[in-house]
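Our preliminary data section would be incomplete without showing what the modeling component actually yields. Below, a chain of 309 amino acids is followed by its predicted structure, encoded as tokens that our downstream tools consume directly.
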Amino acid sequence: MISNHTCALAWRGLAASVLLASIALSGCGGDSGSSRQQSAKPTLVLTEDNAAMVTAYTFGLAGILPMQLLNVIGDALSFHTCLNEEGTRSASETELSELVIYTNCQVDGGEMDPNSLVLDGAIRLDLEHSDQDVPARFTFSEYTHTGSYNDGMSSNSQQFGLDGTFRVDGLPDSSPIPLMSMSDANIRFSVAAQFDAAPPSVFEWRLSNFSIAVQELGSSLGITVAGNVYLNAPPLDGQVALATPVPIALSESNECYGHLTITGGQGTSLDILMTGDGGSITLNGVTTPLESCDEFNDWLSSAMPAFQL
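Predicted structure:
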């Protein structure tokens, strides 16, 4: 029998650290057809107006996506009962797998309002070895994770939706920033967020043949990102291809190293080279020097979403 509760709590504990990664980058059977059926060719045309946003919403996935997936996996495998009478949770497991299905199941939202977290849909965990947490494959089917908060003065709600499958290859625990290595990701995920009376914001990503690989590079972590990303995040609507010819090195220092390329539609491209304390951004053949890593972080941070994923 899998000690899923212990495993889930351990993975959930990584989320706070992975959040740091998203900040650094910005300065654990479903139908994945939506990601597999999309065109393999890039369609989103890269321009000076959208280059920073495309980078933030694609390369930024290396920090944001693992953090969100760790939270979702932790919640999906940790709760065993629903707080509402109409909610249901069913589960079945073997030595190497577990399937959990939720239907309108209210659970303790923790920092959010009591009973404010609602889980729906199915999650399946398949391990390759009974005595190891990884490698592991996760499959989500019409899964939604909906939370809300209201302190009497302000309110907000967010819904995270997930369909598809991905493989977790590693969970490095080295400092400074633990990140999740994942591969063969063919998933569709969405975020719908609303704050007070403001109109809701809806974002959708579809990943195909997507991977995030993490390796230790001395005191730093090297991040390699590759695959296709379809963005539906107004005003962005289209697909790009990501590659990292040289891993992006993340550390606690002000230095940054690595090489990222983004291929867009109609022959457009974005090439980001970081050489220590600086580098360059080349958009459609036109190169802009970077005098420091802070300059790159400022460029990227200006295009990050206004809400926390």
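The longest helix spans residues 61-78. The helical segments are 4-13, 15-26, 33-36, 51-58, 61-78, 293-301. Preliminary results of this kind motivate Aim 1 of the renewal.
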